[in-house]
Amino acid sequence: MIQAIFRKEFFKIRVLTLLTLIVHICILLYIYVSTRRLFILDHPEVVWYRVLHLGQIYYGTLKYIPLLSGILIACFQFLPEMWGERFRLSLHLPVSPALVALSHLLVGMTVYCALALIDLWGLGLIMGLFFPWQGIKISLLTALPWAMAGAAAYLGMALAMLEPDFRLKAVNLIITAGVTGLYLQNVDPGAYGPSLVLLIVPLILLMPAVLLPVFRFRYRRVG
Known about the structure:
Keywords: Membrane, Transmembrane, Transmembrane helix. The chain crosses the membrane at residues 12-33, 57-79, 91-118, 138-159, 196-215. The chain is mainly α. The protein has one domain (1-219). 79% of the residues lie in helices and 0% in strands. It has helices at 2-41, 44-53, 65-82, 87-91, 97-130, 133-162, 166-183, 196-209, 211-218. α5 packs antiparallel against α9.
């Protein structure tokens, strides 16, 4: 039963997954070309000084891509399910509603995490070609909160779309915007480094929070 849900969900977002993968790769190629151009126009010492000491970021194009991917994956997964309350059919399967919901989330989070890992690996690889290890470290510490923003956006959008009450749906969207904005503050490169463990906490809390509207939807506890 759960395997059937996995196949259904993957089939539903397979085209979106391919398109977003292409976009992520194109963005990484753009960052590579932009970084290489910097070293063509200036001496390496000058570029290193700007990045490592002045904190200039040449890969800011990547900042909102994970956020957009997380939102799109959630919309493609849950909007069709909520259209005509089709998700109710899944919740009447002979398995726990929580297990059904977590299976849906697992597929979406797996796809999103794969895209985020490609971003981080590609960015680290590009930085490794042009900068010393300090450059790789700073870039990954800078981009990791951006990746977390995408995960928060995915879980928050799932939380909002699965909520049957429109007032709570609006509240969930506001909470999602607040949590996501936490990861996208304009701070110095790598400034989130000491707080990365704490930044995982909102993501951990969002996962079980998604189960609340699922139970409300399943047992019609609306209004």
